[in-house]
Write a sequence for this structure.
């Protein structure tokens, strides 16, 4: 079964102008980021790729935990992208996902171990990660704690 997704985009002018996109659940202004010499209004392709990778990873991880009967007390994610500019060539080099998974206070060692395995496996299973494989290095650095604090 195929699932089509649609996006409409409008760009108003030259390089340092802005535009907008409408992709159903996502409607926003777009431009080149300030860090790359643009106006920095709205979002940009770099943030959107990071957002796609991060949300795909987070949703995949949540689904894998659920299928393993692991219900986190809290599940949060910080992700970072590194874009290199060398000789005016922009290269999206790396994404680092740092999930923080808070398990219940009485979580067993087996549950902690399984949670760690799933944190790494979710990266390999995510559709966006698979789509960019070989082009962007993606790392996962999970932090698994219990509700009572770091273990």
């Amino acid at each position: 079964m195929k699932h089509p997704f649609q996006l409409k985009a409008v760009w108003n002018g030259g390089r340092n102008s802005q535009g907008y996109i409408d992709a159903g659940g996502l409607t926003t202004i777009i431009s080149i980021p300030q860090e790359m010499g643009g106006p920095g209004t709205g979002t940009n392709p770099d943030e959107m790729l990071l957002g796609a990778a991060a949300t795909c990873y987070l949703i995949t991880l949540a689904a894998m935990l659920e299928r393993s009967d692991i219900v986190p007390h809290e599940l949060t994610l910080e992700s970072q992208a590194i874009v290199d500019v060398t000789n005016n060539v922009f290269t999206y080099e790396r994404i680092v996902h740092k999930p923080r998974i808070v398990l219940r206070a009485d979580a067993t060692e087996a549950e902690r171990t399984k949670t760690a395995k799933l944190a790494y496996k979710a990266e390999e299973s995510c559709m966006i990660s698979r789509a960019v494989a070989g082009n962007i290095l993606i790392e996962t650095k999970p932090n698994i704690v219990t509700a009572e604090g770091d273990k």
